[in-house]
């Protein structure tokens, strides 16, 4: 979708392209969340050596992220991630 100027032509940059990175990251906040598959081993590295996960390292888990990228939750199935998001009035989107 392009916004047209008063001459009927598309400008060089759309409004969203001129937003500072921090403002762009907050678009959709607080209602949108992103569900992304991750390997348990990847999460273990993020959590540090003090945390032990009770799943195989090659297991696929599903991380729920806020629109700004911060991880909010990790669940064992895509369905559970979507259902949990909806339960808390978020709009879940899939990230591949």
TrEMBL record:
<dbReference type="InterPro" id="IPR009531">
    <property type="entry name" value="DUF1150"/>
</dbReference>
<protein>
    <submittedName>
        <fullName>Conserved protein</fullName>
    </submittedName>
</protein>
<dbReference type="Pfam" id="PF06620">
    <property type="entry name" value="DUF1150"/>
</dbReference>
